[in-house]
Write a structure and sequence with these properties.
By secondary structure, the protein is of the alpha/beta class. It has 4 domains: about 70 residues, no CATH class; about 200 residues, FAD/NAD(P)-binding domain; about 140 residues, FAD/NAD(P)-binding domain (3-Layer(bba) Sandwich), CATH 3.50.50; about 70 residues, no CATH class. About 30% of the residues lie in helices and about 20% in strands. The chain has 13 helices and 29 strands. It has a 5-stranded parallel sheet with strand order 7-4-3-13-25. The N and C termini lie far apart (about 55 Å). The site of flavin-adenine dinucleotide has 32 residues, from strand 4, helix 5, helix 9 and helix 11.
């Protein structure tokens, strides 16, 4: 029970807001709204000398925050609300907290918190463009704190490392600065409902040398690191060319899924554009780009026609495509294939396969698969805990008509965020969870500014339609715009789109630092 007193006090009691007696009698600070759903919160206002004994009863805390205007009081009230904690503010998690904040947080129907290991959000499918320099990440970065304030949720910086299901608490690892000094010690956050959306990282399948010698594209930090290393490599090779020394640069991408294929096209564009900005001794043909795939065709998860079109496009862009070639070891400046052949490679990027973060594998008894994904039911509720949900790349969600789980894609995370939003709103009202049904709208592969190819799924016929060129590019871009609409609304997304256009017209096509 939360109590507040109205009266004349020498000073405001700790944690309690104060209406002075005159205001209460004049009614100048009346309840502005009584529609609070904090069923557990009772607010009693007792005027010590003027007979205002009991102003409100159950579910009236909302008025107190407005009338008393006290931050302390707000904190007390918020603590008594149902607390939904979402861990991971990525493609799915950030959309979910934004909608929950706008609907439930704003009206104080629930307390919404987001926990993320980073301070800013960048939509992950853009990372290969950040790596190549064709996209300036800072223009597409969202600061969680600012976004939280605008959309009525709380943000906590930290990396989840454990879970105490009996206490309903998540464990956040101690936070250290770049010098290794502890900034915040390990802490715990209590939840009523927990949603885990921590995404995935590349899976190197234990390949020897991969961790030491490969670059990965799992985070903005890694994408920026790649970009810097690439620029330095170009600079070094340009200098060697100037001195008449051998100066070829070999870049290998292991894994020819969508990420690997799109990255290859972005890198080819970078190698073509750099001379325009002054590195005129290094030619694009000096930069050899190879995509290496263990399966017998690239884009093995997509239809054969798409794979064939993508192969043709890569070859047209002078990207070497090696299929049926599992990599057995990565060395500092080379790759060893399963058949023993060694390929020179000064820069190697690992883009084959994904796995969920390791801490999920043993998370206080929750069920996980071999790829560390949490096992969830059709409703996205974890199989062993009614208070914990998981979605996006870190969850294995069954599909009714398939023996394969929902694929780890941005479009799936986006759809799951929508379903979970409905489920969590229902949950507060004691209603049923909504089952998730994945609607595959097709796949699109973008070859930088050159072209886009893809298949669109016909919702009624179930057949896919092959598209390419400008139409395909339009659909490709719309996936990101949908994400922006979910985060900012239509009007702001329109403004951002306009600003992007202006920025592209004013700045170099490639980010050069
Ligand atoms: C280069 C690249 C290109 C891609 N292109 C496409 C594409 O074109 N189309 C498509 O559909 N999909 C694409 N994908 C896949 C897509 O990005 C993912 O499927 C999607 O981002 C998954 O969303 P998510 O919310 O599950 O996780 P993510 O978007 O990965 O977000 C996870 C969040 O959790 C946070 N986090 C991680 N661990 C912790 C922790 N322990 N504690 C707190 N926070 C944590 C991270 O900081 C991050 O913010 C691409 C992926 C990559 C890497």
């Amino acid at each position: 029970m939360v109590q507040a007193s109205v009266g004349v006090y020498p000073k405001v009691p700790h944690g309690i807001g104060l209406i002075n007696r005159d205001q209460a009698q004049r009614g100048s600070k009346k309840p502005l709204s009584l529609n609070c759903h904090a069923g557990t919160t009772t607010l009693v206002l007792a005027a010590s000398s003027q007979g205002l004994d009991k102003v409100s009863e159950d579910s009236q805390a909302f008025f107190a925050e407005r009338a008393l205007g006290s931050l302390h009081f707000k904190a007390i009230v918020m603590e008594n609300l149902h607390h939904i904690v979402v861990v991971g503010g990525g493609a799915g998690g950030l959309e979910l907290v934004t909608r929950l904040g706008n609907k439930l947080g704003k009206k104080h129907k629930a307390r919404i918190s987001l926990v993320d290991a980073g301070l800013t959000h960048v939509w992950k499918p853009l990372l290969h463009e950040v790596a190549s320099g064709s996209l300036d990440a800072s223009a597409n970065e969202i600061n969680y704190r600012a976004h939280a304030r605008k959309h009525h949720y709380e943000f906590q910086l930290g990396r989840m490392s454990g879970l105490d299901r009996s206490a309903k608490e998540i464990v956040i690892a101690a936070f250290h600065d770049d010098e290794g000094n502890e900034v915040v010690p390990e802490r715990r956050i209590r939840y009523d409902t927990l949603v885990i959306a921590v995404g995935s990282t590349a899976n190197d399948f234990g390949t020897p040398g991969a961790q030491e010698h490969c670059l990965f594209l799992d985070s903005l930090r890694q994408a920026r690191r790649f970009h810097n290393l690439m620029l330095n490599a170009f600079l070094r090779k340009n200098h060697e060319a100037l001195q008449g020394k051998p100066h070829s640069l070999n870049i290998s991408i292991i894994g020819a899924g969508a990420t690997g294929v799109e990255l290859a096209a972005e890198l080819r564009l970078a190698s073509r554009e750099l001379p325009v900005y002054g590195m005129n001794h290094l030619k694009s043909s000096d930069v050899s780009i190879s995509v290496i795939e263990a399966a017998d065709r690239i884009l093995p998860a997509l239809p054969g026609r798409l794979s064939a079109a993508a192969t043709r496009e890569l070859q047209r862009q002078k990207v070497q495509v090696l299929t049926g070639q599992p990599v057995s070891e990565v060395r500092e400046n080379s790759l060893v294939m399963k058949d023993g052949t060694e390929l020179p490679s000064e820069m190697t990027i690992w883009a084959a396969g994904i796995k969920a973060p390791g801490f999920l594998a043993d998370l206080d008894g929750l069920e996980a698969n071999r790829g560390n994904q949490l096992m969830v039911e059709q409703t996205l509720k974890t199989t062993r805990d009614d208070h914990i949900f998981a979605f996006g790349d870190c969850a294995a969600c069954p599909q009714p008509d398939s023996d394969r789980p929902v694929p780890p894609r941005a479009q799936a995370a986006h759809q799951q965020a929508d379903t979970l939003f409905e489920t969590l709103c229902n949950r507060l009202e004691g209603k049923e969870a909504v089952p998730f049904v994945y609607n595959d709208h097709g796949s699109l592969i973008n070859f930088s500014k050159y072209t886009t190819v893809g298949n669109l799924m016909g919702n009624l016929s179930g057949r896919s339609m092959y598209i390419e060129g400008k139409v395909a590019r339009l659909f490709y871009v719309s996936l990101y715009r949908m994400h922006q609409v979910a985060l900012h609304g239509f009007v702001r997304t329109g403004v951002i789109w306009l600003m992007d256009k202006i920025s592209r017209a004013m700045h170099p096509r490639l980010k050069l630092h």
